[in-house]
């Protein structure tokens, strides 16, 4: 079988390496069943690579990522390894800017059978997507902080946000398209809720105005709005009412973790950073130094991210076999947890990375 797609694989640091190996094993099994061929091109990068070589993300890794059909990413960063200015090693942020990956897609879906933290019966219906704008907002300040008056710079620091029309338009257009395809695929609500703080910040009011402009061109989808503070309240009280939720970069960063908490933790939260020409697929979690190297990292988020990659490739290249493989992987994950076959450490069980991976592979159809 000839190679269909070139996938750059960036395992990175800590549990990133462990969960990537798990996802590759599942992809190998899925492609054998569904008749396509991915070529995996493993590349270095991350905090430990920086420690060893003085370079966080080699130019060759960036070039390979640019040329790849898709990028599968583990996690990069390590608390004790930092740049001289004290900031963490985060090549994933550079990749987002470099490849213009403006939409951070973070599905929050309750896998049937998981012991969800919310007691409400409807918690099992949780199925929404945070779309985090990933190229501007408050993260625009990264590397651009303006020091206050004193020479030592410790009087004040100004971290300025940036909100642009282009950034808003493409974020909202992406969100309306996503709501439409979710509605077609799984009878989702067909609703986009713009999350902002437009009652306080002019940038956010501008963002909200652009949202309503784009909503007027997508009238088949319900356009809804919620302030970020009320949204946090609602994520605990009635998260099942949301569908697609676009928001500013920093808000998306924070609420992604809150969302993951609703579905039993970071080990269940996949993500994709998508642009018009490139996309990176990775779990929402980081390198988790506290559990790294112990074989207990939950690979589910990364396995589901790999399924998102197959969906993205299927749509871009009109290859339904890859979409079928994505459904098969999602179904296998659901099967594994629904029947209590696996109970990873993060929900109080004893199954490690290998056991969860094996269960998913065995349940593939
Ligand atoms: P970052 O700062 O990049 O968000 P982090 O390493 O500080 O990363 P995370 O990795 O996101 O934090 O996760 C926080 C905690 O959640 C970890 O310390 C770990 O205990 C747990 N955790 C994260 N991912 C997993 C996983 N895949 N399986 C099990 N537990 C996980």
Mean pLDDT: 95
What is the H/E order? Answer: EHEHHEHEEEEHEHEHEHEEHHH
C-alpha Rg, in Å?
A: 20 Å
What is the global morphology?
A: globular
Q: What is the number of helices?
A: 11
What are the segments in which pLDDT stays under 50 over at least 5 consecutive residues?
none
Q: What helical percentage do the residues reach?
A: 40-55%
Distance between the termini: 20 Å
Which structural class should the secondary elements be placed in? alpha/beta
Beta-sheet strand percentage?
15-25%
Arrangement of strands in the largest sheet: 2-1-3-12-11-4-5-10-8-9
Tell how many strands the DSSP assignment holds: 12
Instruction: Identify the bound ligands.
Output: adenosine-5'-triphosphate
Major beta sheet summary: 10 strands, mixed
């Amino acid at each position: 079988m000839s190679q269909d797609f070139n996938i750059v694989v960036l395992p990175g640091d800590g549990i990133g390496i462990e969960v990537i190996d798990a996802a590759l094993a599942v992809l190998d099994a899925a492609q054998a069943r569904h008749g396509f061929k991915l070529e995996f091109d493993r590349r270095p990068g991350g905090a430990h690579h920086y420690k060893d070589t003085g370079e966080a993300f080699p130019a060759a890794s960036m070039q390979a990522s640019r040329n790849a059909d898709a990028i599968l990413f583990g996690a990069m960063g390590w608390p004790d390894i930092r740049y001289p200015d004290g900031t963490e090693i985060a090549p994933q942020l550079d990749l987002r800017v470099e490849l213009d990956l403006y939409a951070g897609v973070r599905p929050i879906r309750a896998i049937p059978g998981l012991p969800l933290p919310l007691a409400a019966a409807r918690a099992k219906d949780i199925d929404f997507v945070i779309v985090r704008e990933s190229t501007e907002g408050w993260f625009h300040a990264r590397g651009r902080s303006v020091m206050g008056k004193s020479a030592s710079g410790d009087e004040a620091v100004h971290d300025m946000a940036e909100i642009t029309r282009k950034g808003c338009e493409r974020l909202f257009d992406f969100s309306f398209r996503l709501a439409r395809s979710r509605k077609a695929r799984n009878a989702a609500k067909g609703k986009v809720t713009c999350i902002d703080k437009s009652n306080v910040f002019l940038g956010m009011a501008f963002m909200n105005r652009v949202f309503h402009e784009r909503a007027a061109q997508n009238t088949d989808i319900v356009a809804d709005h919620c302030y970020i503070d009320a949204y946090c309240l609602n994520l605990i009280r009635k998260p099942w009412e949301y569908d697609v939720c676009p928001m500013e970069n920093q808000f998306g960063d924070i609420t992604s973790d809150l969302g993951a908490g609703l579905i039993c933790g970071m080990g269940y939260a996949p993500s994709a950073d998508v642009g018009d020409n490139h996309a990176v697929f990775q779990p929402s979690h980081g390198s988790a130094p506290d559990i790294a190297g112990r074989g207990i990292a939950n690979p589910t988020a990364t396995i589901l991210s790999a399924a998102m990659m197959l969906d993205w490739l299927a749509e871009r290249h009109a290859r339904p076999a890859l979409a079928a493989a994505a459904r098969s992987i999602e179904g296998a994950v659901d099967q594994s947890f629904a029947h209590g076959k696996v109970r990873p450490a993060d929900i109080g069980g004893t199954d490690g990375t290998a056991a969860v991976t094996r269960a998913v592979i065995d349940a593939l159809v």
